[in-house]
Please model this.
Amino acid sequence: MDSFELNKIMGAVLGTCLFLLVTSFTAQALFSPKMPEKPGFEIAVKQDAGKEGGAAAAPSEPIEKLLQTASVEKGSAAAKKCGACHTFEKGGPNRVGPNLYGVVGEPKGQGHGGFNFSAAMKGKGGNWTFDDLNKFLTNPKGFIPGTAMGFAGIAKDSERADVIAYLNSLSEHPQPLPTASK
Model:
C-alpha cells in the first residue's frame, strides 16, 4: 500500500471524527435539557377540600373494635405496598421512609437511626397509639398536614386494622391490643 492510500484512509477517519464532533456540539446547542429547580418528582396526593383544619376523617368503626378481628398474617400481606418506602425488620435500614420495627408506642418524628422526619411530623408530638396510627393510615396528609409521606392512605377499615396489628407484632414487647368499650 502506498502512502497516498494511507493518507486517504486517515483523512476519512479524521473527517468522520470531525463530523461527529460538530454534530454533537450542534445537538447540545439545540437540545439543551432544562434542569428542574428541585430534583425529583412531586407525588400528587388527593386532598379532601371539605375538612376543617386538615383533620382526618373519622373512621366508620372504632379501631378498638376493628383490632379484635384483625389478622397479623393479612396485615403482613397488606403491608407489602409499604415496603416500597419502608423496611420492617429489626435494625433494618431507612429508605424513603423510616424503618417501622417497633413503631407502635414510640414517639412521633424521633428515633429510627437518624431518619430525617419532616417538621410537621416532628411537631406532632406524643407517641404512636393505635388510634393515631389508624387516623394516620386513613389519611396521612389529613392527620399531619405537611408530612412528607406521599401515600394516599388505606381506605378499607379491616385492611388498616390488619396493618396496625402487623406493625404492633413487629416489636420485642408488643403493646396489648385495646378492648372495645362498646
Summary: DSSP finds seven helices and no strands in the chain. The longest helix spans residues 3-30. Confidence is low (pLDDT under 50) at residues 50-56.
